[in-house]
Amino acid sequence: MSARTRAVRIVSGIGVVALLGAVVVGAGRLPTVEESAAAPGTAVTVPPAPALLVCPGPLVLPEDRGGDDAFDPTPVDPVTGVQVVAADSGGGTVTTIDGSDTLGALQGGTQARTFDDVTDPLLVRADPSDDGPALVAAAGGGLVTAGDLRGLAAASCQPPTTDAWLVGGATDLGTTTVLVLQNPGSTPATVHLEVFGATGPVDLSTVQYLVAPGTQRVVVLGGTAPQERRVAVHLTATGGRVAAFLQSSTLDGFTPTGTDLVVPGSPAATRQVVPAVTLRETDVDDPDAGVLRVLSPDVATTARVRVLGPDGVRDLPGAADLELPAGTVVDVPLGGLPAGQYTFVVDAADPVVAGAMLARPGDPTALDPDVPTRETAWVASVSGTETGLLALPTGTVGLLTLGAVASGDALDASGGLRATLRVIATDGTVAAEKSVDVPLGTTLTQELAELAPDTDVAGVEIVTTDDERGRLAIGLVARVGQPDGTMLSVLTPVVGPDSGDGLVVRPDVRLGLS
Questions:
Q1: Residue 6: is its pLDDT beyond 50?
Q2: What InterPro entries does its record include (predicted)?
Q3: Which residues, in sequence order, are CB contacts of 304 under 8 Å at separation 6+?
Q4: What are the residue ranges of helices labelled H in 27-137?
């Protein structure tokens, strides 16, 4: 690894025992477990794996209503782009998901690449450098200024996986949510779904989806789980790894009221952390205040929700002892909290998953001047094992949020966490660098445009050291100002590739090897 330590990139090489066996014909006694465990092992150096990120292609467009052009659901074309930024790599490529077209190359070291007018899902591959695994991030999505999909729908590009939780979206009247499955591999992947709703799990025991190599498959979630006003989706894949996200959009009559992408958060755990929850001043009963979404998938349990703001820790009103029925998705309204940037911490007696939704009102459209538009952004939970690098979607400005989450139950413990922020410009240079201290139990924010004025920002690297007292929860609020209101998305970092250090190969004398 390099001399500098990237704390949030805590993907350690864990020693695992590889048991090598051979079938031996004979009636000899099998050794005991203790005898086998005592066999000497040989340390084998395994090179780090390349980093793979799958980026969303163009938004899935609604069906044309036909007839009058005034009711065209897509009166303007979405603007689709992908921003790639590498803080350290041994080079790589950016291709279409099927590998048929190479759009660009990564030369190694610190670099940024911008891709405009993207027409297909993209695959970013970054090889490890001499110092260790590649540290690379990418962001993709679309900006739509009018029509049913009005809004900024952007997200961090995701590594393919066999297990993912998507906490967000709905399928009730006025909401369209589609599940997008992407297979960048060379073998078919079979995807199985669990969908949880407001009244419990949805029976999908016979539903599975085959995703061919190098393709994308779109599933209308309302076709399999209709009329669910809040959902969480758990997917597992066999045969290959997939990237997955939800595209969720809402309408109030003919008025667009939010479009965004829901990406995987951290696996079910007794602590969930949701970063970058950026709230405006609202009344307690404001329907546009946003929500915190929580699910206990297996058993009924209780949870305590606390928020880390600029001034410290407080309980979320009404959620100090939150009841979570088994398999039931619960939304906690966020109205009444002071305006500001927060990190949400959910501590539960049993494993849960969580996410949050932010909302911003906008001006009405000519079709219905009495109904204001709305912009929404879904935020995935983070686990603290993610890489400390985020790409900023093209054409946006970014607000970085850092929540200092203490390791124990006392979130307001004394002390703080130190980090160095490095802004990477679109030309691949480090445009600015700043060290910050974040007191435990608080959330610190930094406008990237203030840190690096007059810079076309590609991304930001957060460098810190491993600290047993706590971890930083990182989020990036991307914004675009429009005449009819602000559009935003919240991006979170992703888990990086394994460092590959340390594999112990040990003969298993129980199977006849000595």
A1: no
A2: DUF5719
A3: 315, 319, 320, 321, 322, 346, 347, 348
A4: 33-37
Does 70 fall in a domain? no
- Token representation of residue 362: 């906008």
Amino acid at 70: A
How many distinct helices (H) and strands (E) make up the chain?
Answer: 3, 36
Q: Which two tokens stand for residue 59?
A: 């938004």
Residues 479 and 461 in one domain: yes
Looking at residue 45, its amino acid is T
388 and 287 inside one domain: yes
Q: Are residues 462 and 508 in the same domain?
A: no
Position 71 in a domain:
no
Q: pLDDT for 130-149, tens place per residue?
A: 989 999 999 999 999 999 99
Give φ, ψ of 36 to 5 degrees: -65, -40
Q: Based on the domain organization, do 281 and 292 belong to the same domain? A: yes
From the list 164, 166, 103, 159, the residue with the least C-alpha distance to 136 is 159
Residues paired with residue 378 on neighbouring β-strands, in sequence order: 357
Nearest to 467 by CA among 496, 495, 437: 437
- Answer yes or no: are the C-beta atoms of 402 and 444 closer than 8 Å: yes
Rounded CA-CA distance 100/39 in Å is: 48
Contacts of 499 (CB under 8 A, 6+ apart): 1, 11, 12, 13, 48, 132, 133
pLDDT tens, position by position, 160-183: 999 999 999 999 999 999 999 999
SS3 222: helix
Domain of residue 473, residue span: 51-63+77-491
Of 445, 502, 219, whose CA–CA distance to 310 is shortest?
A: 445
**Whole-model pTM?**
0.88
68 occurs within a structural domain: no
Q: Are residues 187 and 169 in the same domain?
A: yes
**pLDDT reading at 441 higher than 60:** yes
Domain count, the chain: 2
* pLDDT surpasses 60 at 64: no
CA-based end-to-end distance of the chain: 35
Q: Within this chain, do residues 487 and 508 fall inside the same structural domain, yes or no?
A: no
Residues of the chain above pLDDT 90, percent: 79
> Is 507 in the same domain as 465?
no
Distance CA 357, CA 151 (A): 14
Q: Is the pLDDT of residue 293 over 80?
A: yes
Is the domain of 254 the same as that of 176? yes
- Domain membership flag for residue 250: yes
- Measure the CA–CA gap between 159 and 138, rounded to whole angstroms: 10
Contact 398, 460 (CB under 8 A): yes
